[in-house]
Amino acid sequence: MKVRADIAALIREGHTNASIARRLHCGTTTVATARAVLRYPDADKLSRLYAEATPTRPTPATPWGWTQQQQDAHWQALCATVGTPDAQRPSHGQNARQNTA
């Protein structure tokens, strides 16, 4: 039996038969047959509900990874652009206090 690609994708994502049928405007028996052909077990409704309702945080940003020379060059270019070429670069402690305010 040929299985629709959109149905197969939602089955693999863990959606229930009823959810897939509602989204794709097809019958639940169509989805159940596709699930049987793909040999996927019925979706666990409770864990799917928890997965949708549980808020997730985005992955933390990776550090810039700039070397000290790159940071210094960037700061000098920034100061030259703003018109304060001799400005002192703030320390990490100063930035932390500013960001928490």
Can you give a write-up of this model?
The chain is an all-alpha fold and 101 residues long. It has a domain at 5-53. 60% of the residues lie in helices and 0% in strands. It has helices at 5-13, 17-24, 28-38, 45-53, 68-82, 92-100. Helix 2 (17-24) packs across helix 3 (28-38). The longest helix has 15 residues, at 68-82. The chain is elongated, with a radius of gyration of 27 Å. It starts with a helix and ends with a helix.
Query: What general outline do the C-alpha atoms trace?
Result: elongated
Total number of strands: 0
Q: Average pLDDT across residues?
A: 81
Order of helices and strands: HHHHHH
Question: Terminal Cα separation, in Å?
Answer: 62 Å
Question: In terms of structural class, how would the helical and strand content be classed?
Answer: mainly alpha
Number of helices: 6
**Sheet with most strands:** none
Whole-angstrom Rg: 27 Å
Strand percentage = under 5%
Helix proportion range: 55-70%
Low-confidence stretches at least 5 residues in length (pLDDT < 50)?
Answer: none
